[in-house]
Write a structure and sequence with these properties.
single chain; alpha+beta; 5-stranded antiparallel beta sheet; 10 strands; globular
């Protein structure tokens, strides 16, 4: 039974890895249009009042799709959830500032300030090597 579960987990990981290699862009519904955005252009995502903002190099898109969807769609290699309201692209982090209560505030490439909450601090430190 354990072997079957391990094999199933390996198959799921391989499938996710294959999908992330194949998928270079993601569809984002912005108002009345669906726009294909290159995953490499996405810097961060923020949810506020039921609306998700997708920050890219050129523009901020507004969509109704929740962050949990984006967590699954973007994969865990390049992106990380750092707060219940934020997902960031690890390579887009330009500055890490110590903040109150042993947390951090991140500055993303476009100047966006993103808090790292206590719930995510341990995983964040491991991911960036602190």
């Amino acid at each position: 039974m354990r072997r079957i579960q391990a094999r199933s987990n390996d198959d799921n990981a391989l499938q996710e890895e294959t999908q992330s290699l194949v998928r270079k862009s993601v569809p984002i519904q912005d108002q009345d249009r669906i726009i294909m955005v290159n995953m490499s252009d996405i810097l961060a995502m923020e949810v506020s009042k039921g609306e998700t903002k997708v920050y890219t190099k050129e523009k901020v898109y507004h969509t109704q799709v929740p962050l949990t969807y984006w967590e699954q769609k973007l994969g865990q290699q390049a992106f990380m959830r750092v707060h219940r309201s934020f997902i960031v692209k690890i390579d887009a982090i330009k500055e890490i500032q110590p903040w109150f209560n042993h947390t951090y505030q991140l500055t993303i490439a476009d100047g966006l300030k993103v808090p790292v909450s206590r719930s995510y601090i341990k995983r964040f430190k491991e991911k960036v090597g602190l």
